[in-house]
Amino acid sequence: MSILKIVKYPDKVLKCKAIALEDIDASLIKVLAKDMFDTMYLNDGVGLAANQIGISKQIAVMNPTGSKQDEIVLINPEITKKRGMSKMEEGCLSLPGISSEVKRANEVEVKFMDLEGNYKHLKLKGLPARIVQHELDHLNGFLFVDRLNFLKRKTLLKKFGKRGKA
Ligand code: CO
């Protein structure tokens, strides 16, 4: 088990669109995914994108419940449909200590490749749909604060900047 270092805002890697995985080396990707899950669980997260550990590749892991059978590895994911709207409180392991309500679609359909190299298509709603949108944002170089209005973002980032500096 390896715990990876989580990249924090404002590191540039978080602002870059991650590159699609091609020629997938299954054994390497499995080790990476396992390490990403371990790192996510240790930090009480429900999702983690590869650029958050400094790897600018299209891979993210998520688990809305914490049960092993609910683990999802998203390789080269793409949202094909969005439906409805909901507001939910969101935080991010790259922006520890701040959170905000964020508006997102309530239901999504996502296609991606799994660890075995099979194409998958899932319909998700509620928390799992929210995590998929948050992680895909990461892979496209966006953070949850980028979904907020200017003033709200500025206030939160100021609070984040003051963390631990009392
Ligand atoms: Co995040």
List the SSEs and their pairings.
Elements: H1 26-42, E1 47-49, E2 59-62, E3 72-83, E4 86-90, E5 100-104, E6 107-113, E7 119-125, H2 127-139, H3 150-161
Antiparallel strand pairs: 1-2, 2-3, 3-6, 4-5, 6-7
Bound molecules: cobalt (II) ion.
Account of the protein in words:
Removes the formyl group from the N-terminal Met of newly synthesized proteins. Requires at least a dipeptide for an efficient rate of reaction. N-terminal L-methionine is a prerequisite for activity but the enzyme has broad specificity at other positions. Its EC number is 3.5.1.88. With 166 residues, this protein is an alpha+beta fold. It has one domain: Peptide Deformylase (Alpha-Beta Complex). The chain has helices spanning 26-42, 127-139, 150-161, and strands at residues 47-49, 59-62, 72-83, 86-90, 100-104, 107-113, 119-125. The strands form two sheets. Strands 1-2-3-6-7 form a five-stranded antiparallel beta sheet, sandwiched between helices. The protein has a two-stranded antiparallel ribbon with strand order 4-5. The protein is globular and about 45 Å long. The protein binds cobalt (II) ion (CO). Cobalt (II) ion is lined by residues 92-94, 134, 138. Cobalt (II) ion binds next to helix 2.
Q: Supply the CATH class.
A: Alpha Beta
> What integer value in Å does the Rg equal?
15 Å
* Helix and strand sequence: HEEEEEEEHH
Domains, number: 1
Poorly predicted regions:
none
Q: Please, what is the oligomeric state?
A: single chain
The rounded distance between the terminal residues' Cα atoms is 35 Å
Ions and ligands: cobalt (II) ion
User: CATH topology, what is it called?
Assistant: Peptide Deformylase
CATH superfamily: Peptide deformylase
Keywords: Hydrolase, Iron, Metal-binding, Protein biosynthesis
Pfam families: Pep_deformylase
Binding site for Fe cation: 92, 134, 138
Active site: 135
